[in-house]
Amino acid sequence: MREILTFGRYYKKKLGKRVKKIPLAISGFTCPNIDGTVAKGGCTFCENESFSPNLEKVNKKFFLNPNSKINPILDKQLKEVEFQYIATKRRYKNLGYEKFLAYFQAFTNTYAPFDTLKALYEKALSLEDCIGLSIGTRSDSVNEEILDYLKELDSKYEVWIEYGIQSIFDKTLEKINRGHDSKTNEYWIKKSKDKGLKVCGHIIFGLPDETQEMMLETLKKSIEWGIDSIKIHPLYVVKNTALAIEYRKKRFKPISKQDYIDTLLKAFKILPKNVVVQRVTAGIDNQTLLAPSWCKDKNRLISEIRKALRKEGMIY
Ligand code: SF4
Fold first, then answer.
1. Cβ 60 vs Cβ 48: under 8 Å
2. I need a surface site. Which of 77, 89, 175, 293 has the fewest CB within 10 A?
């Protein structure tokens, strides 16, 4: 049996500890694909709240961008980092986790003035049991200065940068209104790797008009670009998104559960043993989910995926 290298196993092997990421959603953050810098409206599937549990608690009236000259909400942001970290850590400690990475998850977490980013990251790193960071971002929202700084932090802490790859096909990226092309992903992922950073790539199976070959091609290219870790999930439709309109007009058909699991099994056969798997699906158990209904019960889906993987000689 091949044991898939999960995030937990990776850190158990590396540090001998149970490590967990603590998701953070900080007021003032947005995304260049939402604020009009590269596009408006965001990715067609984006309803950031459905991906970021802490987001509903934060202020959504004031937004920063990398050129903002002042940040009147920095104190509030620093308090949010501390409050959210401590509250979630308490829960995870009770579950037996020992050390934590602060996961800047919601929106684009390098899309703010550099001084703000430094203050927030360093605040997180000062908190008890925090051994590092994971920064979720877009490849069009990083630069040499940020990557060099993260590399500097990486000499003392565990530092990951997470890029939304989604697909390597520009046609698909256009269809989902991604606002950047695949070359941008390739360039900045390779650049991050050249600097020695740990990179996690997010990819989606079931994007509009993609075949299984295309989905697996995205995985293969992401591996070639050097990603250290992967997150995969099926495209699901939530209310109040452009994708919901497409779905209601019957112009988008979600991937079936069977096809998703089958693609996932093929993906794992391609995946090198040293690539850390951080996610094999995603789901949302509330009224905002429109389709597919099998994305409602994430835990059940994970157990089906585990069973299917076992049959193929893999333990997740
Ligand atoms: S990049 Fe992320 S935050 Fe920005 S629009 Fe797309 S999914 Fe939403």
1. no
2. 293
